[in-house]
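Data deposition worksheet. Section B asks for the primary sequence of the deposited chain exactly as it was used as input, without tags or linkers unless they were present during the calculation. Section C holds the resulting structure in token form. Section D is free text for depositor observations; keep each observation to a single sentence. Incomplete worksheets are returned to the depositor.
Section A, Depositor: J.P.
Section B:
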Amino acid sequence: MTEKLWGLSFVMVKQAGKSVALPAIVDLDSLEGVRDVLVDALDEGAVTISANAVERVSTNALFMLISAAETARRNRFDFAIEQPSPAFAAAIERLGLDAQFSGMMRG
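Section C:
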């Protein structure tokens, strides 16, 4: 949507917001379903990921979340991971991905 103000054109960025809860086990078996939900959510605006129930997360799932965050950034949408479980946080640390996740972790 484009808006005009004082003769200038502005592109309005939709920041609605959608919450996505990760399952307890985020592995190759659940990855496709999580990806599909993320794609739909990123089409609508800001995304908040709830990671408090995660007991195990695969490396591929973490890379998918990094990619989703980058897509959100390019589209000027907020992307946050709230309340990461100890297992989720440990997987990030174990793989050395702290820097990639630091700006999106909350709680």
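Section D:
The longest helix spans residues 28-44.
Confidence is low (pLDDT under 50) at residues 1-14.
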